[in-house]
Specification:
Structural class: alpha/beta
Order of helices and strands: HEEEHEEHEHHHHEHEHEEHHH
Bound molecules: adenosine-5'-diphosphate, magnesium ion
CATH architecture of the domain at 50-69 and 94-255: 3-Layer(aba) Sandwich
Shape: globular
Helix content: 25-40%
CATH topology of the domain at 50-69 and 94-255: Rossmann fold
Length: 270
């Protein structure tokens, strides 16, 4: 291959990457976030595939939550750009629903379940927030999808962890977004809730929505997700689970800490 050919291949690869980013429901480029001296995430590129379920996986403190927050403009990055279907996030906000890490939410705040779900609809409701029958019906429908209709008038602080997680998913469903971004949706919940949530997420994917979730259980990644981003401050590897979930990549992401993870990489690596 001569030099000219190499140039052609490179240009084509660049054009393809650009096209993938434009079509992507969520693409971040060169994203760097720092809370202090050292960056929590450094120069992260991530191009989420439309209609797929993508897991963000990495050890504690790897910057997974930081990546999601910066991608959704909850915190300001030092550098980087974020596009949603090729457009700036600012004009596409209502097409992304975000379910934060449950531990980061103040559950003592006195609010009923139905009101939490209605918060997901504030854009439809408008600034004056006049709730009409159709909004209430949509909120109840979202609660039905997560099996929580009987709890509509409960205070959220009175719910179990699994029930709280279902309610937060219902709030995202009520938003009727195209992209669902969840931070550790299965952390600290019961097995029945995990099954219920994964069923809802797969249903979203199967109806053309895109799902991105931080996930901590390596064992269930191949079963739950199509694509995976292995993160440890920087992106270690990204792509289809079968390609990315190799022992080498997992060792690179987890280092010596993999022995304390819940599974042996031999059992999950393809
Ligand atoms: P993960 O979600 O992968 O466990 P985080 O994104 O929460 O990781 O955190 C990445 C790093 O940034 C960690 O070292 C964490 O201690 C630090 N960090 C996260 N949030 C803050 C914050 N608000 N202020 C200072 N440091 C933070
Ligand atoms: Mg986190």
């Amino acid at each position: 291959m001569n030099v000219q050919n190499i140039h052609l291949v490179t240009d084509e690869a660049v054009a393809q990457a650009e096209e993938a980013r434009t079509a992507s429901p969520l693409a971040v480029r060169n994203l760097t976030v720092s809370y202090g001296q050292t960056p929590a995430i450094f120069s992260v590129d991530m191009t989420v595939r439309a209609g797929a379920m993508t897991a963000i996986v990495g050890p504690n403190g790897a910057g997974k939550s930081t990546l999601l927050k910066a991608a959704l403009d909850v915190i300001k990055p030092l550098a980087g750009t974020v596009t949603v279907f090729g457009e700036p996030l600012a004009v596409m906000r209502d097409r992304i629903a975000y379910v934060p890490q449950r531990a980061s939410v103040d559950w003592d705040f006195p609010t009923r379940v139905i009101d939490v779900v209605l918060m997901g609809m504030y854009r439809q409701l408008g600034l004056l927030g006049r709730v009409r029958g159709k909004h209430r019906a949509a909120a109840m429908d979202a609660l039905d999808r997560v099996g929580m209709t009987d709890f509509a008038t409960r205070q959220i602080g009175q719910l179990s962890g699994g029930q709280q997680q279902r309610v937060f998913l219902a709030r995202a469903l009520a938003q009727d977004a195209d992209v669902y971004v969840l931070d550790e949706p299965f952390a600290g919940i019961d097995a029945a809730t995990e099954r219920a949530i994964i069923a809802v997420l797969k249903d979203l994917r199967d109806t053309g929505r895109t799902v991105v979730a931080v996930h901590h259980d390596l064992a269930t990644v191949p079963n739950y997700f199509d694509d995976v981003v292995l993160l440890n401050t920087q992106v270690i590897a990204a792509g289809p689970v079968d390609d990315v979930f190799t022992e080498d990549n997992l060792q690179a992401a987890y280092g010596g800490r993999l022995t304390t993870a819940r599974v042996d990489p031999e059992s999950v690596a393809g």
